[in-house]
Amino acid sequence: MAPVEIAKDLFFIQRGYLNANHFVWRGERPVLIDTGYLDGYGETLRYLQMLDVDPAGVGRIVNTHTHCDHIGGNRRIQEASGCEIALHRIGKHFIDQRDDWSTWWRFYGQKAEFFTCTRALEDGDLIDIGPHRFQVLYTPGHAADGIVLYCPKSRILISSDTLWQQDMAVMTLAVEGSRALFDMADSIEKIAGLDVETVYPGHGPPFSDFAGAVSRCRGRIRGFLTDPEAVGADVMKKIMIYTLLMHRQVPAERFFDLIRSAPWFDLTAERYFADDRYGVFQRFFTELKKRGLILEKDGVLTTPVQP
Questions:
Q1: Alpha carbons 41 and 46: distance in angstroms, whole number
Q2: pTM for this one?
Q3: For residue 40, what are the domain limits?
Q4: Which residues contact 61 (CB under 8 A, 6 or more apart)?
Q5: Tens of pLDDT along 18-69?
Q6: Coarse DSSP helix, strand, coil percentages of the chain, rounded to the nearest 5 percent
Q7: Cα–Cα distance for residue pair 58/41, rounded to 1 Å
Q8: In terms of domains, do 208 and 243 share one?
Q9: Less CB within 10 Å around the terminal CB: N or C of the chain?
């Protein structure tokens, strides 16, 4: 999908679910918001070239949080340009301390590269994306360092993984702690009163039904609080798909071992399910195959989910 201009010289780039959506302000010293997944960097470069943006000329990167699908291009762009990189102060701490657990990278067996964070953001800060001034709103829950960016003038909300149109981002309580669902609920209430015309989420297309998305997210959180096993089921299904997206193709006989090679599977199974590990795997693997979200051909697994 071609970049879409959402404000003067500010472009929205819609990716899939392996790479988070990101943004480019095209100017003398370009500004990027999020940079996709490491293995998607070639495609990220192609989008920059479509906008006549040279990575060596980038002046600033703003990251909405430090998960792998949002920071994948940071190190390479910073090495080329010497650009500043801004994160919420908690995310800056993770990066400064080389903490690959709190960023989820090691927990989920994901690829990522550390970089230098040069600016710590606080709740309520103002940050300029070219001539466009955005408010920084701290929205923990999905990620301890999560922020959204809001432009009152244009009524644009860059919601990252705090608010999606239909679904809700995965809740990793094994890393974020049991209070994360309450943090997420508070974050949704924090943004609910904003005057928003268009939401640009971290995954999926832009949408205008802000109130509807907020209502659906509230419902999902209530459901998770009522039924903790639903949290575990959501993690199992989403991360199985994400693992296939990361590896593209996986021999069917190796998928269970691959899933168990990162800490997330055993810790999630132990937290939420009484079945043996293979039984847990088969339960969700079978469901995803029936739904057509995992495909098997000639002993090889793939997913039709857009990367």
A1: 9
A2: 0.96
A3: 4-226
A4: 31, 32, 33, 34, 35, 74, 77, 78, 83, 84, 85, 86
A5: 999 999 999 999 999 999 999 999 999 999 999 999 999 999 999 999 999 9
A6: 40, 20, 40
A7: 15
A8: no
A9: N
